[in-house]
Amino acid sequence: MRIGFDGKRFFHNNTGLGNYSRSLIKVVSEYLPENEYLLYNPKKSSNYKLTNFNKSVIEVNPENYFSKKLKSLWRLYFVSNKIKKQNLAIYHGLSGEIPLGLPNNIKKVVTIHDLIFVRYPNLYSYFDRKIHFLKFKYAAKKSDAVVAISQQTKNDIVSFLAINEDKIKVIYQGCNAVFKQTFTEDQIKVTLIKYNLPENYILNVGTIEKRKNLLTVLKSITNTNKNLVVIGKKTDYFNEIWTYIISNNLEKQVLFLKNLSLEEMAIIYQKATLFVYPSIFEGFGIPIIEALYSKTPVITSTGSCFSEAGGNDSIYINPESSEDLRKAIDLLWENPSKRNEMQEKGFEFVQKFNDETIAKNWNELYQSLV
What we know:
There is one protein chain. The chain is α/β, with parallel strands linked by helices. It has 16 helices and 13 strands. It has a seven-stranded parallel sheet with strand order 3-2-1-4-5-6-7, sandwiched between helices. The longest helix is centred in the middle third of the chain and has 17 residues, at 126-142.
């Protein structure tokens, strides 16, 4: 079977949607190598190539001058002409979109990660909200199957896009295999020294934006001796974060890291005393999965999809309450036996997101369509 994918995020996105795309293609190509996987990429990438993928994965790019110049238009529409000639059984949009003009004989799948732009319109411009809604609504309506990355997202698709729930399948995502690795003492030591990491620290991972709620984490460690390590891309929200840090003399307690290798990030997860993720809302929350595979206790938010990712043995707090977060941190910081219990139970729970299970779910969906 030949399956086509929107490859833009795979090749050009360093974070959530890109990681999802690369992880999915890696899993299906390794567990289902009998298929061919075509990635339609509007522009060659210097960051991500197919070096680490088997021969079943093929990159497809625009060929003529016009299509190379109008990359967005190629991805939106002209790629359909290319797809018609390549005898696909299925086309899969990995980030809420499918091209216009796909032939009727090709089965269509779209993954929708979240509808945060509907739930929290104040976080998006009017133009972005309208464009996202039109693209997602079109893709969900035209596709033969819609994949939600959590039950929470499925509920939102039904509510906000008016799609029949029978058409929607929840398929969870996993995380990069590097977070499941065991590292040598030398590897760990090199990373700890390179980034001057303290012996004990709280870890927070995610884009530094208002929705991720880093300010609540800072408030929870104010007037304590606890150290915080933050890994994430800075946005305008960082100005508010830095103002708070300066005003409360937290400069020596908070360490911002960037340009890490995946191996370094995995080591930092594994050496963290605990992981905090008080996000207001997510489609799923991959950093929670990364922490659980790293055997690091998790404190995250009530509501949304967080319990789907964190299981019964993570701690859930009101993300608007720095006092709730402070109490949860104190509970774990002073209680090694509680941390050990959460580590073991969390690691047992997170096995439901292993690659073999995910590949089985995708195979069942693709086979059901053809």
